[in-house]
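Quick start: read one record
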Amino acid sequence: MFKQYELSYSFDALEPHIDTLTMETHYTKHHAAYTNNLNAAVEKAGIEKDIEDLLASLDQVEDKAIRTAIRNNGGGFYNHNLYFATMGPGGGGQPSQVFLKKLEEEFGSFEVFKEKLSTLALGQFGSGWAWLSVNKEGKLKLSSTPNQDNPLMDKDGFLPILGIDVWEHAYYLKYKNLRGDYVSAFFNVVLWDEVEKLYRKYT
């Protein structure tokens, strides 16, 4: 059984950048539903894999309806675990000098990195995500995906270490149609230490 990520902070801890009602609804309704629906789908299919392997091998699920359920809900489960784990009170600012240097090497500067990731988030038509991913060689990549898809599903060796959720449920209660304001605010709650931990884990 897959277990919903346990928040280490209260629903109001990300104010004023992400409001309390959005956090509570996002976590207790949306994320909980993805988790429950994923567990129901894998139980029905008799599948026992960790979430990374499961999402990277969707083409092995023969039943189309179950494959779709796992893609949507497994993606939602994994994506939100990452999203909530890499945000927190006291976030924002810049990464450590080591990871900052890596971002500068890949993208030119930290500001250019944020601009490029923000552009992907703003340019995602409809619901989806913008990602920072890494492969085992330490190469960084920016991308975006629709719905609850993520880089694991591309099977190109890149694993996500930071994701911006641009589904409307992530921001609409506070920011309405101003997605750009939400994306800007998101960087004020990013826990760069957690992002860097994932970078080190995957490399």
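The chain has two domains: 20-85, 97-202.
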